[in-house]
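User: Hi! I'm working on a homework problem where we have to compare a predicted structure to a textbook description. Could you give me the structure for the chain below?
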Amino acid sequence: MYAYIDGKLVFKSAAFVVIDAGGVGYHINISLNTYSKLGAGERCKLFTWLHVKEDAHTLYGFIDEGERRLFLHLISISGIGPNTGRMMLSSITPEEIQNAIISGNVSLIQRIKGIGPKSAQRVILELQDKLKKEGSDTLSTVPLNKTVREEALSALVMLGFARNVAEKTIDQEINKNNGDLTVEQLIKAALKSL
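Assistant: Happy to help. Predicted structure tokens:
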């Protein structure tokens, strides 16, 4: 429902922040990773996810889109709710979590409070292929000025194609057409080849 909230940081603690956006104070739960990257008393922007239950609507905030994406992957696992997902992002960095899942490092994930051996194995089993397919750079901040190639590659990965296969196909199409393609034309040409 809310993609992000941008405003003045009114209150900051290790568990949550309050951001004033347009005269409304938003109480947003955060991870220690996000907390460590926020400044004090300044304008900030958090990418958000709204958790709706019968008795509560809870906002979770993330310093960047990559952290939010990893959080959503984590809570898609049976037995891992938003608070456990936030605990995971607070215990070790998102990069460490992603690398542990991709490499199958059960012991690192199991060291996180609230994650037992079965949960750690389930996280790896269910997310390993997804994270490998997305590629290791999905946690990095997305540049604002993307090239036609990057835009097309991002779109193909979002459609479910493996990153390395999509990259190869896009490069072939760019070479075939001397790079004179719009994002839409490049995606359409790549889809015909995939």
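For your comparison, note the following. The mean pLDDT is 88. The longest strand covers residues 43-52. Good luck with the assignment!
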